Amino acid sequence: MRGCICTTRTRPTRPHPRSVPASGSGLLIIDALPWGEVTEVLDSKGKRQSLGESPFTPLVLSLPPGDYKISIKNPGSPKPLTLTATIKDAGVEKKIAEFRRIDAEEYLKKAGF
After folding, report:
1. pLDDT value at position 23?
2. 7 belongs to a structural domain
3. Which of 13, 34, 41, 102 ranks highest by number of CB atoms within 10 Å?
4. 17 in a domain, yes or no?
5. Cα–Cα distances in Å, from 3 out to 6, 7, 9, 19?
6. 16-34 burial, b for 16+ CB within 10 Å, e for fewer?
7. Exposed/middle/buried for residue 73 (C-beta within 10 Å: 0-12, 13-18, 19+)
8. Does residue 70 belong to any structural domain of this protein?
9. CA-to-CA distance for 92 and 25, rounded, in angstroms?
10. CA-based angle 56:100:29, to the nearest 5?
């Protein structure tokens, strides 16, 4: 088209987790509403687990089977949240932390609509 400037928007993508974890490990999927920063994941012995390159949700970790304690923070919340998860061999465990619910009508009202 003549005189037309076309643009496209792309979203950053994250690698998709494997649908089947490797033997001897399981997947832990951590998400938060509206979002969160995972500050630590500890196993039952208190050993800190690696969070990879970015600690922000959604976060997918491959972990050995066991029990874990997850700490997540959000600057809009007065205190961090703690979740627990049990990872099973070749299993997938999803945990969601909810910092605060956002009421759509209240949000739009504050935004001037």
Report:
1. 67
2. no
3. 41
4. no
5. 10, 13, 20, 46
6. eeeeebeeebbbbbbbbee
7. middle
8. yes
9. 10
10. 35
Q: In the chain, which residues have pLDDT < 70?
A: 1-23
Confirm whether 14 is domain-assigned.
no
Tokens 């690696």 map to which residue? Answer: 50
pLDDT in tens, 77-101: 889 999 999 999 999 999 999 987 7
Domain range for 106 is 26-110
Separation of alpha carbons 94 and 26, rounded Å: 11
d(CA 53, CA 18): 18
List the CATH number of the domain containing 43.
Answer: 2.60.40.10
Q: Residue 45's pLDDT is what?
A: 97
- Structurally, the chain folds into a number of domains equal to 1
How many whole angstroms separate alpha carbon 25 and alpha carbon 62? 6
* E strand or H helix that includes residue 108: helix 104-110
Give the pLDDT confidence score for residue 37 in this predicted structure: 97
Q: Give pLDDT, residue 21.
A: 59
